[in-house]
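WARN retry 2 of 3 for item q-0093 after timeout on previous attempt; input resubmitted unchanged.
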Amino acid sequence: MKKSIALLLALVMLVSLAGCGNNAAPAPAEKANYKIGVMTGTVSQGEEEFRAGENMKAKYGDMIVLSTYPDRFMQEQETTITNMMAMASDPDVKAIVMVQAVPGAAAAIAKVREVRDDILFVLGVPGEDPDVIAEYGDVIMQTNDLARGAQIAQQAKDMGAEVLVHYSFPRHMSYEMLSARRDLMKAEAEKIGLKWVEQDAPDPTGDAGVPGTQQFIMEDLPRKVAEYGENTAFFGTNCAMMEPMIRQTVETGAIFPVQCCPSPYHALPAALGISVPDDKAGNLEFIISEIDKKVDEAGMDGRIATWSVPVNMMYVEAGVRYAIEYLDGNTNGKADAAVLTEIMSDVAKGPIVLQNYGDYDHYFLYLGAPAEF
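OK item q-0093 returned
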């Protein structure tokens, strides 16, 4: 898999990439005098992070204690609290990694800290107000969606695009973050010479539902290619759009720079007809290899891209490895940006960018590295 990196130096304040020792993936710590709790969604609610937790358990053995939050986490926050308290009841548990940090995480951490103030909390994908969760997490990781705006436009340009089509609908464009990302994407596209095309699509929550949205993408994308040519790149703001968008991109020979939620697992296997055996579930190397093979077979080399590692799997693995570095005394305090950046770059197998959220030195916005197939 060929990697091309499009990083936003103008829009973000980069956290230093200075090295802090060797953060290559550590060997299982058989003699570690601590344990690390990993709390994720269930396989039905968040398979990527669930599989990542299993991978950490397979790698580090008894040092990892696994738990899940309930599928109905909004209605069952007491269960989230109970499950986290159960992990914290083991005095050997010195760190807890939670991905996703769904609503209820702050209350759960608050309860734990009433009896244990020695636990490091590493949180990914916070689902509560940033200023609230910032009071409770020691290290917080979230995708930098605003910075992705210019990154997506630049990635499309790097892949040979002359036109960039943005699919969305009024409900999404009423969301401040998605609207701001669109504006930044448009500005960057025009700056670097891409023709910008904005296309409304049916809202999947509307009368026609998901099938209506998908049918529109299936029919409209070929029309756009017929109008603007094969060097047209497509981006959509909704997950339901991704599979038909990838299918039609391959069918028409167009360009697909990244999903709305960047991950090799997101829509690519289904769109490319890849079946994943049970023994390969959560095996990132397998899925990337299969995607690369299918893309080459379709004659689409260099025309399909995503991020090199699923975001939520990144947060689980990087969170565990960071906790190990902290507990082994290899970090400068609880939130060491340089160590975290080095670990995340190693997991992603390429440079990544971290930006502090607001004035918080422990709340990090993550911009991953695009990777072409």
